[in-house]
């Protein structure tokens, strides 16, 4: 299974258009969005090309291929614009050997984990900082942010392909980090 994973769009139309173009080229079956889709939030500056209604329109073109969790900036009003569910605080994807636990990262996070088993993958956004690492028996994966990157990193997204999670730069798809989900 090939998956694209993105987080923290925050209403940026240029970032959304680039992400959707890459998704179309990737061959991924599903686009996983880890929340904070339309609103920039009170702690963030307006991202480039801030156009929440247009971002919603673009995302709706792929409504049947998007899996999403709710971010701390997402609301019921946002759900009214979007044609796919965004209000679940977490979701899970079961793979052959492990599970991907998907969440935004403001409720569950590395210091407050849900019950996870050895080999499971904790997938979150929220910090806008890319992470691909194994801690003890759990893999932690954060694709960074497509619109408001932090920590000196480039805007980025994630991919799961052939049991490898990678974080790629949005502008040129260069690999920022990667990790195998099978030891």
Automatic annotation (TrEMBL):
Pfam families xrefs: Metallophos_2
EC number(s) recorded for this UniProt protein: 3.1.4.-
Protein keywords: Metal-binding
Essential cofactor(s): a divalent metal cation
Gene3D superfamilies found in the cross-reference section: 3.60.21.10
InterPro entries, sorted: Calcineurin-like_PHP_lpxH (IPR024654), Metallo-depent_PP-like (IPR029052), MPP_YfcE (IPR041802), Phosphodiesterase_MJ0936/Vps29 (IPR000979)
CDD domains xrefs: MPP_YfcE
UniProt superkingdom: Bacteria
GO molecular function: hydrolase activity; metal ion binding
Residues in Calcineurin-like phosphoesterase domain copies: 1-161
Protein family membership: Belongs to the metallophosphoesterase superfamily. YfcE family.
Protein name: Phosphoesterase
């Amino acid at each position: 299974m090939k998956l694209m994973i993105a987080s923290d769009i925050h209403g940026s139309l240029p970032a959304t258009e680039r992400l959707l173009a890459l998704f179309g080229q990737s061959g991924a079956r599903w686009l996983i969005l880890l929340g904070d889709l339309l609103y920039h939030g009170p702690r963030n500056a307006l991202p480039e090309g801030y156009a929440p209604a247009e971002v919603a329109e673009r995302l709706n073109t792929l409504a049947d291929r998007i899996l999403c969790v709710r971010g701390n900036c997402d609301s019921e009003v946002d759900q009214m614009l979007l044609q796919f569910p965004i209000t679940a605080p977490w979701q899970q994807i079961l793979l052959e050997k492990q599970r991907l636990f998907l969440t935004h990262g403001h409720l569950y996070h590395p210091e407050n984990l849900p019950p996870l088993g050895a080999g499971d993958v904790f997938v979150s956004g929220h910090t806008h900082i890319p992470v691909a690492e194994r801690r003890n028996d759990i893999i932690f994966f954060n694709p960074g942010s497509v619109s408001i990157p932090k920590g000196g990193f480039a805007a980025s997204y994630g991919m799961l392909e052939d049991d490898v999670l990678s974080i790629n730069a949005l502008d040129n798809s260069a690999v920022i980090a990667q990790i195998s989900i099978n030891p």
